[in-house]
From TrEMBL:
The lineage of its organism: Eukaryota, Metazoa, Ecdysozoa, Arthropoda, Hexapoda. The keyword Disulfide bond does not apply. This is Fe2OG dioxygenase domain-containing protein. InterPro entries: DIOX_N, IPNS-like_FE2OG_OXY, IPNS-like_sf, Iron_ascorbate_oxido_reductase, Oxoglu/Fe-dep_dioxygenase_dom. Residues 177-290 form the Fe2OG dioxygenase domain. It comes from Orchesella dallaii. Keywords: Iron, Metal-binding, Oxidoreductase. Pfam families: 2OG-FeII_Oxy, DIOX_N. Belongs to the iron/ascorbate-dependent oxidoreductase family.
């Protein structure tokens, strides 16, 4: 794992008003060079409360261990009419190249923003601590997402708050947004129900895709299997680094930056090591997108080389203006298999 994409955040810890301008500027240069040159970054010494992250892992595991009948009580409604809720293995398929739902072996719960008004059907009734765990996880993640967005804006030569001011829900949860908190579980391969060994050709834990929002903070356990594609097109293992957070960018960042920062293609393979396939894998993510009513378009002119040319076949196909919520809803509807 090259040092070049592991970024130490210790110089920018604490409330953003107290961070030295020069420290934020230095971090911004390092981060921007890494995202535009390599395509993703590991953030270490990020100062987030790991106990809160662990609590979300633990309560999530309790949920995924429940019988299927309990889990499907909070299943997402058909046709993506609401984006909140549980997706069973195969309910959402991301690999547009090989859209075979049976082959995507992840299950997850999505909790969209503005949960205060929507909490009743979307939290597992068996687990009263689930909602608090989500809230704490989100509040920790916001601290880092805020600084990442400020740093990227500075890198692009924009005012520091140019991106965060489009994400006011990060501080005010009454504002509607397609921002997602997601908790994922990949069962041990041996334990998967309903999938015959002979059908397992081409099976993957999560198909190739780019995320749909602005950025994604991805927390993974130590099992591994996640791959990311570098800007130069090479697929490499995003090997877990303990207590680090992987930062990848989504479609909306690619559009905001006029293609200077590309959305990061990624996938989750079944580990080659058979011992590891017997272990469950868990990951958590916080993927902030703009407030729902925001229009998304490049925040600075598109460089000539990117005009009419999407950066990645998995990312946004144009830099056209769009409404933030409609875009994310469209992407969810395409991925839903029922
Ligand atoms: O589990 C992971 O590490 C990645 C999951 C993912 O890419 C997604 O749900 O969008
Ligand atoms: Fe993803």
């Amino acid at each position: 794992m090259g040092e070049s994409y592991v970024l130490d955040c210790s110089s920018i810890l604490g409330p953003v008003e107290k961070v030295q301008k020069q420290d934020l500027a230095n971090f911004s240069k390092q981060l921007g060079d890494t995202l535009s040159g390599v395509g993703f970054a590991y953030l270490t010494n990020h100062g987030l409360d790991l106990k809160k992250i662990d609590k979300f892992y633990d309560v999530s595991k309790e949920f995924f261990d429940l019988p299927k009948e309990s889990k499907i009580k909070i299943r997402k409604p058909p046709g993506a009419s609401s984006l909140h809720g549980y997706a069973a293995p195969g309910d959402e398929t991301l690999n547009e190249q090989a859209p075979d739902a049976a082959n995507e072996l992840r299950e997850f719960i999505d909790i969209l923003g503005h949960i205060d008004t929507n909490d009743v059907p979307y939290f597992p009734p068996e687990l009263p601590s689930f909602k608090d765990a989500v809230d704490e996880f989100r509040l920790e993640s916001v601290k880092l997402a805020d600084k990442v967005m400020r740093s990227i804006a500075l890198y692009l030569g924009l005012p520091e708050d140019e991106i965060v001011k489009r994400h006011t829900h990060m501080k005010d949860t009454s504002v509607e947004t397609p921002t997602v908190v997601r908790t994922l579980m990949y069962s041990p391969i041996a334990k998967l129900p309903d999938v015959k060994i002979s059908d397992r050709v081409g099976e993957i834990r999560c198909g190739i895709h780019c995320d749909w929002l602005t950025i994604t903070l991805l927390y993974q356990d130590l099992v591994g299997g996640l791959d990311v594609q570098t800007v130069s097109g090479e697929w490499i293992a995003a090997t877990p680094i303990e207590n680090s957070i992987l930062l990848i960018c989504g479609d909306i960042m690619e559009i905001y930056s006029g293609g200077r920062i590309r959305a990061t293609p990624h996938r989750v393979r079944i580990p080659d090591d058979t011992q590891l396939t017997k272990k469950p894998r868990q990951s958590l993510l916080y993927a902030p997108g703009p407030d729902s009513n925001q229009t998304v378009e490049p925040l600075l002119p598109i460089p000539e080389i990117y005009i009419g040319k999407p950066r990645s076949i998995y990312g946004p196909q144009s830099y056209d203006k769009m409404n933030a919520y409609e875009w994310v809803h469209r992407r969810f509807s395409t991925a839903a298999t029922y």
